[in-house]
Design a protein that fits this description.
The protein is of the alpha/beta class and 353 residues long. It is built from 13 helices and eleven strands.
């Protein structure tokens, strides 16, 4: 019963087969190869427009390079207080941008609102050299709370950002899970809603080490070319990352994997709601969920063979807030999660005292 992280899962055999095929014979290095060219075509088809694609091997690199391209060193990035770029990337955005500041926004259910963004900018004075100048809005889809922004919510946030002259970035580490949750197109959830640049994640959903920066505002592409090289993320044998992304996108493997993960998460959430042993901290929209439980129940679940993380985040406030004798556990389902895993955990929860 392993629910720690979708990062902990392996990769389907098709990924290894794709890289094996890319290994047959020499080809031009540094992205000037047929696989990389095909990836750009596939992404342009997926997003229904011309895009620039910069492949990297980690989500942190994708996020940091994206934000650096959008934000001057004296600028700042507006993001959720518990966003991955804010708390889990060791200052990578600040480092790659040359010193840009992150401004955390607090709001319920893991999702920023236009009002919360406006409130966070109260003390930022455009044109005042004493203030870091806000330049970019970064939102995460799926959020760190496991919730999903609706298309209207993305559009409203982007409209707020654009009205202030900001660039817009989406951290799509679980992009596929968000697409499945909303049942929309990739274009609808990104540039049609106002997103300028996307960190397209694949590693959590079946790739070995494959992420991509997808640029919709093509004016940013020329700068990203140099930023990626300077950061050491231009791979000489990038065809092996490209081969993974081709396998990921073809035959909708990315959608199939995400749909399975989301379905398993829904099955898990439905089963846990029938128990009075724990309660959900946030809405369950995709493949990860947060449950509040007594500390002694947490121990019994781990002793019973369940593996999941204790979450350090603040959780909900008000009547739903966790109490002193409680913890928040994060449960993540992935493309290899089985019904047996899910049903076994639900049964274990029902047995604890």
């Amino acid at each position: 019963m392993f629910f720690k992280s979708d990062n902990s899962l392996g990769a389907p055999e098709v990924m290894f087969e794709a890289m094996k095929q890319a290994n047959e014979g020499p080809t031009t290095a540094y992205g000037d190869d047929p696989w990389t060219q095909k990836v750009t075509t596939l992404f342009s088809d997926l997003f229904e427009r011309e895009v620039a694609v910069f492949m990297v091997t980690t989500g942190t690199a994708a996020n940091a390079l994206s934000l650096a391209a959008c934000t001057p060193s004296w600028g700042s990035v507006i993001c959720h207080q518990e966003a991955h770029v804010m708390v889990d990337e060791c200052g990578a955005a600040e480092f790659y941008s040359g010193g840009a500041k992150l401004l955390g926004v607090m709001s319920d259910n893991g999702k920023m609102t236009p009002k919360a963004v406006a409130d966070a900018l109260y003390y930022s004075q455009p044109g005042n050299e004493h203030n870091s100048q806000p330049a970019t809005l970064s939102l995460t889809q799926v959020t760190e709370a496991g919730t999903v922004y609706t298309l209207d919510e993305i559009s409203m946030l982007c409209a707020e950002a654009k009205s202030r002259g900001f660039k817009t970035h989406m951290d799509g580490a679980r992009f596929a899970n968000g697409i499945v949750s909303l049942g929309c197109s990739a274009a609808d959830m990104t540039w049609k809603a106002g997103i300028d640049v996307l960190s397209f994640g694949a590693t959590k959903n079946g790739a070995l080490a494959a992420e991509a920066v997808i640029v919709f505002d093509l004016e940013l592409a020329e700068e990203l070319k140099y930023r990626r090289m300077r950061a050491g993320h231009l791979l000489s044998k990038s065809r092996f990352v490209a081969a993974q992304l081709i396998a990921y996108l073809q035959d909708e493997l990315w959608i199939k994997n995400a749909r399975h993960a989301n379905d398993m998460s829904k099955r898990l959430a439905d089963g846990l709601r029938k128990s009075n042993k724990l309660r959900h901290a946030f809405d369950v929209d995709a493949n990860l969920q947060f449950v509040i439980m007594k500390k002694h129940i947490h121990k019994q679940l781990h002793d019973g063979g369940a593996h999941f993380y204790t979450w350090p985040g603040r959780g909900p406030e008000g009547d739903a807030a966790k109490q002193e004798d409680e913890i928040i556990g994060r449960l993540v389902c992935g493309f290899t999660t089985t019904q047996e895993d899910v049903d076994g955990f639900i049964k274990l929860v029902g047995s604890v005292e």
